[in-house]
Amino acid sequence: MTLIHAGEIIDDTYPLVADDAAIPASGSALIGWDRFEKEQDALGDSRSRIGLLLPNTLDVAANIDPLLAAPLLVLQFPGFADGRAYSQARLLRDRYGYQGDLRATGQAVVLDQIGELLRCGFSSLHLRADQDPQRCLAAFKAPSLRYQSASDSVPVVRFGRRAISG
Length: 166
Hints:
Layout: E1 3-5, E2 8-10, E3 29-32, H1 33-43, E4 50-54, H2 64-69, E5 72-77, H3 84-95, E6 101-106, H4 114-119, E7 124-126, H5 133-141, H6 156-159
Parallel strand pairs: 3-4, 4-5, 5-6, 6-7
Antiparallel strand pairs: 1-2, 1-7
């Protein structure tokens, strides 16, 4: 799968480590949330280089402290009918101020969703295999005016407001 971060195609430096495999002694790694919960105390200092693959059923508010400390959070979109990862992203960025890499992965990470993914605070996207990376890159640069505020923009109605003198 192609990985786009900040409008550029990049190599993935966070290889997914299976639950039954050893976490490498150096370098970055991505582990699942269930494994992290079981092993977080044993991870010690290596937690600063461990990304977390989160189920879209995870209550981010109830688990916010370890999430904020992770350099990478990967949120999953198993299909178009399941947009819970959009809500997770908005909570992480807007309510809790998550500053790390917020990555979208799954079946719904396609060209026509890129604008909404970016608006919710995603900074990187693992494109679905059938997506054209060059067309998707162009979506990162597409200008737009919005009527609703989001992680990525100020709504257009704020540009036109003036003080009314009476």
